[in-house]
Design goal:
Layout: H1 19-24, E1 29-33, E2 36-39, E3 44-47, H2 50-53, H3 62-74, H4 86-98, E4 109-113, H5 116-133, E5 141-145, H6 154-159, H7 163-166, E6 174-177, H8 183-186, H9 203-211, E7 216-221, H10 237-247, E8 251-255, H11 269-273, E9 279-282, E10 294-298, H12 300-305, H13 326-341, H14 344-360, E11 368-374, E12 377-382, H15 391-402, E13 405-406, E14 408-410, E15 413-416, H16 424-440
Parallel strand pairs: 3-13, 5-6, 5-7, 7-8, 8-9
Antiparallel strand pairs: 1-2, 2-3, 4-10, 9-10, 11-12, 12-15, 14-15
Helix pairs in contact: 3-13, 4-13, 14-16, 15-16
The protein binds pyridoxal-5'-phosphate.
């Protein structure tokens, strides 16, 4: 079968896309290798976003495609309700080895899902089920944070804090901490976390005062908010949040869909910040993005509380047809083996200082009002053209793509997160293209 490089664009309703604008001037990718894409016209495009924060080990990894092919030819699908297959157990065991936490706090139990959104909704349901299992059945409210992104399930949008994802849809009982973004006090922070804002974690006390701790099951935050435009936690914030939550019997969930698997320079953000939550949600880098998959990691306290009751009863009425899909597990095992063999779970720490210097060199470009970096992530915030919020960053995005660089923009913020395999010279190339685009766009 041959595929046209100019397909009919009518039938595919694209996600999170201005469909009509896109279809008038499409950007179509056709191939990928290493840290580069090729578009349908054969142009090489540096992947400044690991696809969509997914491809941490770089594109076209033959170890993964071989493992996938072998798995497809051996056991293509297996049901996971009252049935199992060895690959799912093997992958969970390997994941538990790298999971954050020590002793009782180790997040060693793995519940598979099909995506980040499913991981978030799964974690929220586990939290509510856990509270009920320990006699706290009134705890059904979940707390998120303004500007948080936790996918698009009803649970995820309820705890999420991006208005466009929420305003049209009903939500489950929730409330929100204030976000921590503060340009007036923390702009252009370099060499560490933003100094100001740890006290914003006290918002959890405020919400406990407002709703009563006995109504709250869990609080979920992205340790580093990604999709909203790379917001770093203020120094001491996550520790403080954990302490307050513990005091009130509220579970802490870190949404590590983006920060997991080496993005910050440690296996997980929980390791990087030295704060172990009760659960983490993951996806994306779990399989290097090549097969859709997510996973929720929990500690034994949660897991064991739900393993009570008669042994012939299902403990958690939850799961997906594709939970523990054999092909996804095979892709995940091959991905994890690359991460470990090539030291990718900590490589961002080696590149962080070069990365920080390179990205901060954009500081004096017109319209740049903030730059923040951590590990191999960066957010570059632009001032808006009057009320047209997002228009300037979008123009930079289009300009970069034309000149061979894929970046991601959200509102007026450029987010960068290249594959963890990127070389220093390629980082410099990325910055050159971006700097030119910033100069060109008015
Ligand atoms: C922190 C976070 N949680 C959840 C999700 C949702 O993941 P998915 O798009 O795989 O459903 C994302 C996606 O970007 C994310 O960044």
């Amino acid at each position: 079968m041959t595929r046209a490089n100019t397909p009919n664009l009518e039938n595919y309703w694209m996600p999170f896309t201005a469909n009509r604008q896109f279809k008038a001037r499409p950007r179509l990718l056709a191939a990928a290798e290493g840290v580069f894409y090729r578009d349908v016209d054969g142009n090489r495009i540096l992947d400044g976003t690991s696809g969509l924060w997914c491809v941490n080990a770089g594109h076209g990894r033959r170890e993964i495609s071989r493992a996938v092919e072998q798995q497809l030819n051996t056991l293509d699908f297996a049901p996971s309700f009252q049935m199992g297959h060895p690959v799912a157990f093997e992958f969970a065991e390997k994941l538990a080895e790298i999971a954050p936490g020590e002793g009782d706090s180790k997040l060693k139990h793995v519940f598979y899902t099909g995506s980040g959104s499913e991981s978030v909704d799964t974690a929220l349901k586990i939290a509510i089920a856990y509270q009920r299992a320990i006699g706290q059945g009134t705890r059904t409210r979940v707390i998120g944070r303004e500007r948080g992104y936790h996918g698009v399930g009803f649970g995820g949008i309820s705890v999420g804090g991006l208005v466009n994802n929420r305003r049209v849809f009903p939500q489950i009982p929730s409330d929100h901490l204030r976000h921590t973004h503060n340009l007036a006090r923390n702009a252009f922070t370099k060499g560490g976390l933003p100094e100001h804002g740890a006290e914003l974690a006290d918002d959890l006390e405020r919400l406990v005062g407002l709703h009563g701790a006995e109504t709250i099951a869990a609080v979920i935050v992205e340790p580093v908010a990604g999709s909203t435009g790379v917001l770093l936690p203020p120094e001491g914030y996550l520790e403080r949040l954990k302490t307050i939550a513990e005091k009130h019997g509220i579970l802490v969930v870190f949404d590590e869909v983006i920060s997991g698997f080496g993005r910050l320079g440690a296996p997980f953000a929980a390791d990087y910040f030295g704060v172990t939550p009760d659960m983490i949600t993951t996806a994306k880098g779990l399989t290097n993005g090549v097969v859709p998959m997510g996973a929720v990691f929990t500690n034994s306290r949660i897991h064991d509380a739900l393993m009570q009751g008669p042994e012939d009863q299902i403990e958690l009425f939850h799961g997906y047809t594709y939970s523990g899909h054999p092909v996804a597990c095979a892709a995940g095992l091959a991905t994890l083996s690359i991460y470990l063999k090539e030291g990718l779970l900590t490589r961002a720490a080696e590149l962080a200082s070069h990365w920080e210097t390179a990205v901060h060199s954009l500081k004096d470009r017109t319209n740049v009002i903030d730059i923040r970096t951590i590990g191999l992530v960066a957010g570059i915030e632009l001032g808006s053209r009057g009320s047209a919020v997002g228009a300037r960053a979008y123009d930079v995005f289009v300009d970069c793509f034309k000149r061979g660089l894929l970046i991601r923009v959200t509102g007026e913020i450029i987010a960068l997160s290249p594959p963890l395999t990127i070389e220093k010279g390629q980082i410099d190339d990325l910055i050159l293209i971006l700097a030119d685009a910033l100069d060109r766009v008015d």
